[in-house]
Amino acid sequence: MKSYEVNFDGLVGPTHNYAGLSVGNVASLSNAAQASNPKEGAKQGLQKMKALHDMGLKQALLPPLERPDVFTLRKLGFTGSDAEVLQKAAKQAPQVFVAVCSASSMWTANACTVSPSADTQDKKVHFTAANLANKFHRSIESPTTSRILASIFNDEHHFSHHEPLPLGDHFGDEGAANHTRFCDDYGQAGVEFFVYGKYAFDNTKPAPTKFPARQTFEASQAIARLHQLNPEKTVFAQQNPEVIDQGVFHNDVISVGNGNVLFYHEDAFLNTDEVFNNIRKAYGDNPFYFVKVPRSQVSVDDAVRTYLFNSQLVTLGDGNMAIIAPGECEENTRVKSFLDELITQDTPIKQVKIYDVKQSMRNGGGPACLRQRVVLNEQEIIATNQKVFMSDELFASLNQWVDKHYRDRLEEKDLSDPQLLTESRTALDELTQLLNLGSVYPFQFES
Ligand code: SUG
Prior knowledge:
Radius of gyration: 21 Å
CATH class: Alpha Beta
Bound molecules: N~2~-(3-carboxypropanoyl)-L-arginine
Structural class: alpha/beta
CATH superfamily: Succinylarginine dihydrolase
Distance between the termini: 46 Å
CATH topology: L-arginine/glycine Amidinotransferase, Chain A
Number of helices: 18
Number of strands: 15
Shape: globular
Helix content: 25-40%
Oligomer: single chain
CATH architecture: 5-stranded Propeller
Number of domains: 1
């Protein structure tokens, strides 16, 4: 039976805005308080999804979450009608308020970690929604994310869903942004590669000093246990703390893997030789390509500014790979010339395709942040909710849906407008019908 990598992209939500919420994420802080354009953001994302679909890749999507999150504000003591809750919170606790308005669920690389059935002992696809414990605005995502995953992958013969890891810094888990998988063929047992930023229970080990390490070793190990992975085909590596301190807040900002390729910056990991030996040992005898980007050609700063490594690395129908890169990579001469040269070399990477996802990039989210990879075999694809798969029809109806419900300009002062909450809920209610999701949002089942 054939298996495929299906990219589940996050749909940019109606409250997409720039609030400067993510310390350690350079773009998030430097664009704080700029006006955003949710309509343009959603359309840029849809264009990328459609382009990958048109390339013959399997493409699907995950819906945005309900924001502003009035239910979280109520848990924090704000009372009255929804409009009163919004206005009191915006006035009395503006930083908390903007956090519950973030459309951060668009970065579905952080939604969960997924292990394909070929890698797990019980031969089910395992999902663990990420607790995103390090940032308050992201830590409130997982309950609804879990509900959405359970609704889309709703067949216990094929899919196993785990609760997010316990909240708190010790088990900080950022999902697939720190996880990649290597394999000869998507349907064969692969090597699962987990990258963590620090040890939570041993502070004698190296750790960043300026910016937070969002993923712990202990969290990565817990995911591997829950997903019943084969220890011989599981590799753990520590991210270089120095690059975290330069703004590399997730591993997918400094390396990306697919098939038999790891495309990485020279400074990405600690103890690189040992890590690569472990990957080789776990991978077996077939050819494997460690494609290095030397610091002499592309600095860490260039990588953070252009998001070169937050590209998607995808396998095309002819077996070659393409890099799906953000527009910023073309605008930087060093990165552009590196890419021009790369595709002439002896690696499977033969094409570079550029997409404009600027609305997301200004919050530190490139093409790879916007997608969750789920490897599924033909039976598992059939067992998945069919309505979330991209098609010409779905592309057209989602564009119409965006045109109908989204604003083209949002500033902080607009977030407490009760009308924005109504617009957002109306849009999401319609979306759950369009995608046949059932009631997944609190406004649909809480009184
Ligand atoms: O968690 N930005 C996100 C970006 C996530 C990128 N994901 C991956 N690298 N996989 C974050 O830092 C900024 C929101 C704001 O500032 O308004 C934000 O949440």
